Amino acid sequence: MSAAAPLRTAWVVGVGLHPYRKVSRTPYTELGVTAIRAALADAGMSWDQVQTAYTGTATTSMALSRLMYRHLGATGIPMMQIENASASGSSAFRQAYLDVAAGVHEVAVAVGVDKPLSFSAPARAAGVEDLVSSRILPVTHFALLASRYLYESGATAEQIAQVAVKNSRHAALNPNAQRPKARTLAEVLEPPHLSGIFTRLQCCPVGEGAAAALIVSDRAIDELGLNRDRAVRIRSSALRSETCYGTANFDAALTGETTAEALAAAGITAADLDLVELHDAFTVEEPVYLEAMGLSGPGHAAAALSAGEFDIGGRVAVNTSGGLLSMGHPIGPTGIGQIAELTTQLRGEAGARQHADARFGLAHMVGLGAVCAVHILARD
């Protein structure tokens, strides 16, 4: 087998969002087009300069791409719709990046859009009797993992709840967040408990929204006269699925493998990271994944969180957007929304939630199945 051709450098030059929020009567087309137009304006580009489009969506409808993109103009570009559970937007971004990096196109857009209209699971069509999953909701699955983490690490339920406190504090500075209000520890711990240690504010809200990112080549920057000073480099992209692990937390093991692959491809280590946007659908996920990524020793992330190491201005700023817990988790857009946050931070344009002198940022999403996507962006 011959060696693969080296990938070209690719850049994020424009990002845009439709604010995440509770479900409304707004058509998904309006959500998506709002985000795309914002990304185009951010880059100083027009729709007719986009050569290919990838749409990440999980809970809305099949064949939604054409009905959305036609509002921008019927330019005949190839478009592909990607569903990969919570990693749908992350997967769309990866495909847009690879398209440009491989030299197939010079300009690609990755769009995430969703309204929670149609949730379905494959178990009924899989032909295999399911004795467990249909009886354990995600909140209970992660509550059980939280109990195990508390037992093994010696962390307290209050320390785990501090994840929601921190991320709500970040989201209060984010105009696109679904929960844009800073919460105290007492508020986060307020009953009722949904499962195990989890209260309502320790579980992410699922609503609607959209996010878009424009990815271009060096050639496109020059030919289209784009502002190279605001371009953020995509250093690596990794996507893996689970194998067989000797642990109950396969998402953590998968996260460790995928992060290691992305860091190696980017030529950096975990210690080089300044920013991390990670999948925190439930509070316990943040310390578990930070340990899996190598940003904290086993069992030590909860204490590091309490010490402020993962705040804006700390050792590494984690979920400056507010994370899934407070920014929100509209499924399809979430992974691309992370790219928008990292891009804004790496440009130094995040305003009150800016993490100073950030150079490297990592975006992480896991998806039911399980899959894991990790992207590393850099300010060159």
Automatic annotation (TrEMBL):
**EC number, UniProt record:** 2.3.1.176
The record's keywords, sorted A to Z, are: Lipid transport, Lipid-binding, Transferase, Transport
Q: What CDD domains does UniProt report for this protein, alphabetically?
A: SCP-x_thiolase (cd00829)
Q: One GO molecular function term? A: acyltransferase activity, transferring groups other than amino-acyl groups
Q: Where is the Thiolase N-terminal domain?
A: 23-179
User: Which PROSITE patterns does this one have?
Assistant: THIOLASE_2
Record-linked PANTHER family? ACETYL-COA C-ACETYLTRANSFERASE, NON-SPECIFIC LIPID-TRANSFER PROTEIN-LIKE 2
> What name does UniProt use for this protein?
propanoyl-CoA C-acyltransferase
* Source organism of this protein record: Nocardia yunnanensis
